[in-house]
Design goal:
The structure is a single chain. The chain folds into two domains: 64 residues, no CATH class; 65 residues, no CATH class. Helices cover 47% and strands 8% of the residues. The strands form two sheets. A two-stranded antiparallel ribbon has the order 1-2. A two-stranded antiparallel ribbon has the order 3-4. β3 and β4 form a beta hairpin. α4 crosses α6 and α5 packs across α6. The two termini are 16 Å apart. The site of iron/sulfur cluster has 12 residues, from α1.
Length: 154
């Protein structure tokens, strides 16, 4: 399965670690589920623990080991705190062109900040409340990601 760039995996894991459903002891989303390594009774108990109601919707926490799951492109958070990794190779090239076209000195224009925030949301499924305040963080994230994505996709 396609793996996301390390900067994206790290961003996802940071979100998980701040989430009330994250279990520190097992590093899992809800109660850890180990598939066929569990007895039917333990599996049923874990599944019951992981059944939650989120904004009035009945959902199921995945029970996955998050340091592993956050690296996989097609996975997403069951309560949409982070999304699937959506960049294909063409989009990755477009992002690389955007990053390489940025000025190395001086300030970013409002249009550049807007475009960077859109890329960030596309890649992580998250929005920053104020993209201007967070511009430095967003640009650094994109630069780190594209460097690693180029390496990974090469
Ligand atoms: S995947 Fe989502 S629900 Fe599960 S620990 Fe991470 S942020 Fe929380």
């Amino acid at each position: 399965m396609f793996k996301v760039p390390p900067a994206i995996a790290a961003e996802r894991l940071t979100i998980c670690r701040a989430c009330k459903h994250f279990k520190e002891a097992t590093q899992s989303c809800g109660t850890l589920i180990l598939g066929n390594k569990m007895s039917p009774e333990d599996l049923a108990e874990a599944e019951a623990n992981n059944a939650i109601t989120h904004y009035r919707k009945k959902l199921r926490l995945c029970g996955c080991h998050m340091p592993y799951k956050t690296k996989l492109s097609l996975w997403r958070c069951p309560i949409n705190k982070w999304g699937r990794y959506k960049l294909n190779e063409e989009e990755t090239e477009a992002l690389a062109a955007f990053i390489s076209g940025l000025p190395t000195q001086g300030v970013y224009t409002a249009q550049m900040v807007k475009e960077a925030a859109a890329w960030f949301t596309k890649m992580t499924g998250q929005r920053y409340g104020c993209s201007t305040c967070k511009a430095g963080v967003i640009f650094q994230f994109l630069k780190d990601s594209i460097g690693e994505a180029n390496f990974d996709l090469g």
